[in-house]
Design brief:
By secondary structure, the protein is of the alpha+beta class. The chain is built from 3 helices and 8 strands, in the order H-E-E-H-E-E-E-E-H-E-E.
C-alpha cells in the first residue's frame, strides 16, 4: 500500500523541491507516522548547477569522442569527469543490464492511453525492475531510436489499482542509452 502512496507523492515532492533527478531515487525509511502521515527519504542524483562567467571572447575548439565529454566536464573546474556520472557510451550499442535508458512510455489499458502511467524522457536503470518485474527485459538488446511494443500482465495485488489483474500494452520509444561511469581505475 505504501508503494502507491510514494508513487502518488514523489513527483509533487520533486516539484516542490525544484529537483530534476538524473536517475531513479533510492527510497529509505518508508513509514507512516502515528498521525497517519507518510514519511520517506528519497536520495537522488541531480545535475549540479553551474554558471559560466567571462565566456565572451573565448575561442572554442571541438573535440571528438570521449575527449569531448572530458572537455565539457573540465569546464566545471574539476579537470575531469565526476567520480560517479552517467554518460552516453562511445559506440551505438544495445542496452545491457545496469545501463540507464531514457524512454518515452505510453501504456494502453483496454485499448485507451492510461495517462497516469505515461512518461516522457523517463530515465530508468535497466535491471532494477522499478516499473514492472518484466519491463526491463524487453529493453535488453535494443538501441536508441528503436520503438517497442509489448504486453505486461499486472498481478491482482498491484499497488496501482487501475491495472491490477489486467494486461497493459506498452509502447516505448528508446531515446538514449547511458552507462555508469564510476571513476578511473
Amino acid at each position: 500500500m505504501s508503494n502507491q502512496f510514494v508513487q502518488d507523492t514523489y513527483p509533487e515532492a520533486l516539484k516542490q523541491a525544484q529537483l530534476k533527478p538524473l536517475a531513479e531515487a533510492e527510497l529509505e525509511d518508508v513509514r507512516f507516522e502515528d498521525s497517519g502521515t507518510l514519511v520517506y527519504d528519497a536520495t537522488v542524483e541531480v545535475r549540479p548547477p553551474f554558471s559560466v562567467a567571462d565566456y565572451k571572447g573565448l575561442e572554442l575548439h571541438q573535440a571528438s569522442g570521449r575527449d569531448q565529454r572530458r572537455t565539457a566536464s573540465a569546464g566545471t573546474g574539476t579537470g575531469s569527469r565526476p567520480a560517479r556520472s552517467v554518460e552516453t557510451p562511445e559506440s551505438d550499442r544495445p542496452i545491457r543490464e545496469k545501463d540507464f535508458a531514457v524512454v518515452d512510455l505510453t501504456p494502453f489499458l483496454e485499448g485507451k492511453v492510461f495517462d497516469k502511467g505515461k512518461a516522457v524522457d523517463y530515465m530508468l536503470e535497466v535491471g532494477k525492475k522499478s516499473l514492472h518485474p518484466d519491463f526491463d527485459e524487453h529493453l535488453l538488446g535494443h538501441k536508441a531510436g528503436e520503438v517497442l511494443g509489448f504486453d505486461l500482465d499486472y498481478p491482482d495485488n498491484s499497488p496501482t489499482t487501475e491495472v491490477a489483474g489486467k494486461r497493459v500494452r506498452m509502447e516505448v520509444v528508446i531515446k538514449e542509452v547511458k552507462e555508469k561511469y564510476s571513476g578511473p581505475g
